[in-house]
């Protein structure tokens, strides 16, 4: 009885997950083929299950099928990128892990788990194309990004960071930039590039947390036709950034295996495309950023020590906004000027009580949070020309410092439930303040309209 329950639970799990599952026995007969795999390959389960895999894919050689290859070699094939046309003629990109199933030292079959990466692959290719177009159209730009004149601040802490950054611009050494989310790490990075001798060459930024390892490797180092199923000849970001600067944002999110490959490129000065055999020399300056303290990520093993020492030739720490004193008001005035034009407003100044209110807030989201606060506050103003304290819309949360606090009764509830309750509460408050205008409510919350619509649907928020 227990065994029947166990089998039923496993079947339910297999049919409910997004990953495709395909299991064949040692004779090549398909035993398990879930709905996700059928949808991925455009096949009917009835045409696959309990049929010989050799009959389904007639004339297929062993080295063209990872399932058959694993049956033959009894070795695991991990994170294998495949691109192919399914039965309906749609181009599909998957990342597969295929493994032999051995029971009691005997091979009983092979299991393949496939994750559909078609959309992510398409987006990554569009990113590469857009970056190629941007580079080709503005190879010798007058200015396409930020420089040091765009950085506002008179506090000692930001002046110290700027002084180091300006010296870094005169060098070709690698730079490691640490700062909390929203402090302006990319702004500093662009300023270093456009203040350097490389300013007429490409500046390319890539977020290391945005893509899975298999796709990120191809984006950074390029791909070679035939390197894997569906691969084409395409230069990676290192080649595109040749003679210029490559910004690796959130380097602490890069998988360790890929960090080792990055280290080799930095040490040897050449790249080898995925699936290729040719070494391509590159001259690229690296600026890496992290939103976690370098000592912490080293202790936690998120960053290889040898890569850290290679990147940390020049170290720049950007102070959080709460440590920048009067810079808060300078930045607030800058954002008021910006959104006066964008929103067709005429805000001339900030009242004294509003200044004190802004300076006392903890600013966990730093400069980005301040900008969103000014934007959302101004969006709700009518004909006023002074920004008063009661007009400032700051999303309240437990900052742990001097900021306003929102207290909750945990009651042994899971964290995601608590977060969801808080999020739903503020969405309702924003809708209330905006008169149920989704666009204005999104501005108050500092998110895009589409994101707010998704969350309204997620929490089934209904208002009269």
UniProtKB/TrEMBL annotation:
Xref: CDD domains: AAA (cd00009), PAS (cd00130)
Molecular functions per Gene Ontology: ATP binding; sequence-specific DNA binding
InterPro entries, per database record: AAA+_ATPase, AAA_lid_NorR, Homeodomain-like_sf, HTH_Fis, P-loop_NTPase, PAS, PAS-like_dom_sf, PAS_fold
Gene3D superfamilies named among the record's database cross-references: 1.10.8.60, Homeodomain-like, P-loop containing nucleotide triphosphate hydrolases, PAS domain
Transmembrane segments: none
Every Sigma-54 factor interaction domain range: 151-379
Keyword hit for Transmembrane helix: no
SMART domains xref list: AAA
Keywords: ATP-binding, Nucleotide-binding, Transcription, Transcription regulation
The keyword Nucleotide-binding is assigned to this record: yes
PAS domain segment(s): 6-57
GO BP: regulation of DNA-templated transcription
Pfam family, one: PAS
Record-linked PANTHER family: TRANSCRIPTIONAL ACTIVATOR ROCR, TRANSCRIPTIONAL REGULATORY PROTEIN
The name this protein goes by in its record: PAS domain-containing protein
Organism for this UniProt entry: Romboutsia maritimum
Species lineage: Bacteria, Bacillati, Bacillota, Clostridia, Peptostreptococcales
